[in-house]
TrEMBL record:
Belongs to the MscS (TC 1.A.23) family. Pfam families: MS_channel_1st, MS_channel_2nd, MS_channel_3rd. It is a multi-pass membrane protein. InterPro entries: LSM_dom_sf, MS_channel_1st, MS_channel_C, MscS_beta-dom_sf, MscS_channel_2nd, MscS_channel_C_sf, MscS_channel_TM-2. GO terms for molecular function: mechanosensitive monoatomic ion channel activity. It is found in: Cell membrane. PANTHER family: INNER MEMBRANE PROTEIN, YNAI-RELATED MECHANOSENSITIVE ION CHANNEL. The chain crosses the membrane at residues 20-41, 61-83, 89-110, 131-155. Keywords: Cell membrane, Membrane, Transmembrane, Transmembrane helix. SUPFAM superfamilies: Mechanosensitive channel protein MscS (YggB), C-terminal domain (SSF82689), Mechanosensitive channel protein MscS (YggB), transmembrane region (SSF82861), Sm-like ribonucleoproteins (SSF50182). This is Small-conductance mechanosensitive channel. Residues 256-339 form the Mechanosensitive ion channel MscS C-terminal domain.
Amino acid sequence: MMKNWLDLNAFMSISATHWLYAVGIAIVVYLVLESVLKFAVVRLEVIAKGSATDLDDMVVLILKGTNRFTLVTAGLLSGVNFLDIPYKLVSTLGHLWFVVIGFQIAAWLNRGVTIWTMRRLSRNGVSPRNPVITTMLSWILRGLLWTVLILAVLANIGVNITAFVASLGVGGVAVALATQNILGDVFASLVIGLDKPFEHNDFIVFGSNSGSVEHIGLKTTRIRSLSGEEIVCSNTDLLKHTIHNHKRMTERRILFGFGLTYDTITEKLRAVPSVVKKTVEAAGSTRFDRAHFKAFGDSSLDFEVVYYVTNADYNLYMDIQQRINLTLIDEFTQMGLEFAFPTRTVQFVTSTLEAAPPR
């Protein structure tokens, strides 16, 4: 207590003139730093206008976010340095300088990460194909940045950070065990981001569900189903299914069949595959594969046709299939062919029972 009182007594014994000098120096330092900052921002804005990269714009935005409290604190510390203060306070001021500079550098880097994340997540108003990696990198960078700053400040003021880091490791293990389900979904989202089994706006089918991917989050993925409702599925459960990604189809393979009546003559049956091939090729955006007389059905002569639509669009496929069906009806009508439909012939057998002779 006596030593602290002596230090405080020495601090309070500073003359008013020295205090005025200190205040004046603090104001001058603040104004100089403010002027330098404004000049740098103006010059960089001019350079950024003629630059084709986004780096200059990011630097301008980062500098504009400089904390004015940091400039005020730097001015005050500069003024206090001109006072005749005890050695213990001089050492403390040195630590404060480290904290102020470290905080401002961390704030600049944090703002840079924020700007980079915002630009990655929305380029010209368009959502990214997969925001998972960007979001996770943003969180990791910010966490690493502030952790390094806190550890550096603690080390600078004389705290043994080795034991602190070890305790953080033990605590991290405990937290990981308590939140393993959540962490499982987070790591699953990382897998989705790296492996990209599907991306934003892809149409996928998994299990009994299907729909367009609207959002890929850190824990869940949101899918808009064909019937309109939103399906929210955890990333871990989603990756357990076999996922059919229809958006990545380069072409669509189509198989369909039809049946003709049993009274069709052989010559006309031989002509059917060529008629089908001509019809499919004339439909547009198709590649014909085969058409065969497949089997003898219960009430029809069955044909099987395979062709490819060279575009994955489902509506286009339906338009083409409709065109093919209508054309086949016209062609078969002209050939005198009839489509078969399920029929069944029932024969009634009658017998006459001889009357028994009278007794």
